[in-house]
Amino acid sequence: AMEKSCVSVFLLLVAVSCALAKDVGKKESKDTTAKPKLPQTLSRGWGDQLIWTQTYEEALFRAKSSNKPLMIIHHLDDCPHSQALKKVFAESKEIQKLAEKFILLNLVYETTDKNLSPDGQYVPRILFIDPTLTVRADITGRYSNRLYAYEPSDASLLYANMQKALKLLKTEL
Mind telling me which Gene3D superfamilies this protein's record contains (predicted)? Predict the structure, then answer.
């Protein structure tokens, strides 16, 4: 009998603590604004309402299976050039809208795939990969020494290159 009552008390404690934990969670969410807060982790500020993949492998898989091009942004949190480009990217309604047609990945670390650094491991750099998993080395920015670098002033070129990545998709696949 003693064992049974211990188990009952234990289950009661578990139930009460679960109920209290739920209430605590509810109170916290009431204090925040009405707009549901999306997890900021994967976007890292590049577009919080966009769907970002977590890893390069996942991004490749999703590009192939959804038949969408992949856009990879290499950047660093403590790089002023990355931060400046991120601001322009996130604030451009046109870029954000077009980005919805891509599988998206932003990386603050280098992958082991050498194809993602055809001319070096600098940031920020943006590469496009088509659904056949071919790195589009032909879609470049305006700098001959850093082919995949974009500055904040290159927003329209980046937009044009995003369109190019989507257009090539339709003609080649």
Answer: Glutaredoxin
